[in-house]
Amino acid sequence: MKQYRIVPMTIVLLIVLALDQLTKYLVATQMSLGESIPLLGEFLSITSHRNSGAAWGIFQGRMLFFYIITVVVLIFLVYFYKSEARDNWMMQIGITLLMAGAIGNFIDRLLFQEVVDFVDILIFNYDFPIFNVADSALTVGVVMLLLEVFVTGRGKKQI
Ligand SMILES: CCC[C@@H]1OC(=O)[C@@H](C)C[C@H](C)CCCCC(=O)CCC[C@@H](CC)/C=C\C=C(/COC)CC[C@@H](O)[C@@H](O)C[C@H](O)CNC1=O
């Protein structure tokens, strides 16, 4: 139990997933498409947007591709958790965030064949693509796993 912390990780997954679905639901029902609400000047706005593709709108409309990729990613993440994340809380959180993000966008793709996006940031004057909580969880999860493996190096087998 301690080695895998299933209960705490499940709670983290459910919280991230609920936050993702709630924010998407509010944007989809309370805002009209394209409507933008500035939060921090022009640097951060909430803009109601839809994307039937992946990052930067690649693979527009390829739902079957996304269903297959997502199921493969989720199966891999469960397997990777069991084999590599034992006693490694950083890896466990990273994998949990990746799962929450993948499931969050998967629900949108299954229900609407597109994903609701709303976080609109202007980074260094480059209009970064509008994203959502699920994308953030995926990105943070990717960063945590990379840090875990390349920085702390604890991803390696203990000698
Ligand atoms: C975040 C992964 C994208 C997410 O992948 C997913 O769903 C998972 C289940 C996997 C896809 C099925 C397939 C991945 C293809 C590879 C890819 O995409 C390379 C990603 C790099 C990434 C580093 C990890 C950079 C950053 C992205 C963005 C900023 O994220 C903070 C822009 C997000 C906006 O374009 C927004 O419109 C996207 C929309 O919400 C749908 N989201 C997805 O497809």
Automatic annotation (TrEMBL):
Pathway of action: Protein modification; lipoprotein biosynthesis (signal peptide cleavage)
Annotated active site: D117, D135
EC class (word): hydrolase
GO BP annotation list: proteolysis
Membrane-topology descriptor: Multi-pass membrane protein
Molecular function, one GO term: aspartic-type endopeptidase activity
Catalysed reactions, semicolon-separated: Release of signal peptides from bacterial membrane prolipoproteins. Hydrolyzes -Xaa-Yaa-Zaa-|-(S,diacylglyceryl)Cys-, in which Xaa is hydrophobic (preferably Leu), and Yaa (Ala or Ser) and Zaa (Gly or Ala) have small, neutral side chains
Pfam family, one: Peptidase_A8
EC number: 3.4.23.36
Membrane-traversing stretches: 64-81, 93-112, 132-151
Keyword tags: Aspartyl protease, Cell membrane, Hydrolase, Lipoprotein, Membrane, Protease, Transmembrane, Transmembrane helix
Location relative to the cell: Cell membrane
Superkingdom per UniProt: Bacteria
PANTHER family in UniProt: LIPOPROTEIN SIGNAL PEPTIDASE (PTHR33695)
Sequence similarity: Belongs to the peptidase A8 family.
Function in brief: This protein specifically catalyzes the removal of signal peptides from prolipoproteins.
Name of this protein: Lipoprotein signal peptidase
Natural source organism: Jeotgalicoccus meleagridis
Lineage: Bacteria, Bacillati, Bacillota, Bacilli, Bacillales
